[in-house]
Amino acid sequence: MVGRLLGWIFVALALMCLGADTMAMLERGEFGLLGLGALWAALDANSMIAVGDAVAGYTFPELWNPGITTLLRVPGLLLFGLIGVLLLILFRKRERPARLFTS
Known about the structure:
By secondary structure, the chain is mostly helical.
């Protein structure tokens, strides 16, 4: 049940990213999907900078750049949609086999 709930949450996040991508496409007049970094920067750029500084300062700097920055270039629609669909497939309701013997 928790897996399906998480799957639906990721699908909802993917749909939110689709809405943000649609608005950005209408503003720019050209097709293009926004990466996670662009979406995060649109929500709160200061927190992205603070997290980057914290990760680079308190852990390995290579973890942030190129590690996490590469992940932040992935389109949010694709990443959240893929994770959500995979979770929904993995945790789907399976039909129980018919009982051979009933009491």
